[in-house]
Write a structure and sequence with these properties.
The structure is a single chain. By secondary structure, the protein is of the alpha+beta class. Strand 2 and strand 3 form a beta hairpin. The longest helix has 9 residues. 24% of the residues are buried. The chain binds zinc ion. The site of zinc ion (ZN) has 7 residues, from helix 3.
C-alpha cells in the first residue's frame, strides 16, 4: 500500500464459519448465521494501521462493534476492498452493497453508531460470497492504490 495515500473507504469481507452467538458490546447479544459479513468503514488517516488492527485477533481492546465480531475464532477476513474517499463516502457504498441481490441486514446499527446518513447498518450479511458480490466489486474501481 502506498504511503502517500493512507486513507480510504474499505470493505472487510469476513467469513463466519459456523453459527455463533456473540455479544457486540453495548449493542447486545445476537445469533449470527454462518456466511459472509461485509463491513464498511473508513479511515481518514492511518488506513494501513487500521486494517492491521482489524486483522489482529489477540491483545486488542474491543472498541468498535466490528472488534467484538472479529475477536471470535470462527471469523476470518477473506478479502479487503479499498476505495478512494473521493469516489464514495462509506454510506453511499453501504447503500450500494445493500442493493446487491442476497444482501440482508441482520443487526441494525452495527458499525453505524456515528452514521449521519441514516444507514440501517454498516454490516451486511450474505449467505455466500456469491458471483453477485464479486461482480459488484469488480465493476467498481476498487483497490485504487
Ligand atoms: Zn452510513
Amino acid at each position: 500500500m502506498s504511503m502517500q495515500i493512507d486513507s480510504g473507504i474499505y470493505v472487510l469481507i469476513i467469513q463466519l464459519k459456523k453459527n455463533t452467538r456473540l455479544k457486540i458490546g453495548k449493542l447486545g447479544t445476537f445469533n449470527f448465521k454462518k456466511g459472509y459479513y461485509l463491513y464498511v468503514g473508513s479511515a481518514l488517516k492511518n488506513l494501513s494501521k487500521r486494517l492491521e488492527r482489524h486483522k489482529k485477533k489477540k491483545n486488542k481492546n474491543l472498541y468498535w462493534h466490528i472488534d467484538f465480531f472479529l475477536n471470535d475464532m470462527n471469523t476470518e477476513i477473506k478479502d479487503i476492498k479499498i476505495f478512494s474517499p473521493e469516489v464514495f463516502n462509506e454510506c453511499e457504498l453501504t447503500k450500494k452493497i445493500i442493493s446487491i441481490p442476497g444482501a440482508k441486514i441482520k443487526v441494525k446499527s452495527f458499525g453505524a453508531s456515528d452514521c449521519k446518513k441514516g444507514c440501517k447498518s454498516h454490516f451486511i450479511f450474505f449467505k455466500e460470497y456469491s458471483a453477485n458480490v464479486k461482480e459488484f466489486f469488480s465493476n467498481l474501481n476498487c483497490n485504487f492504490q
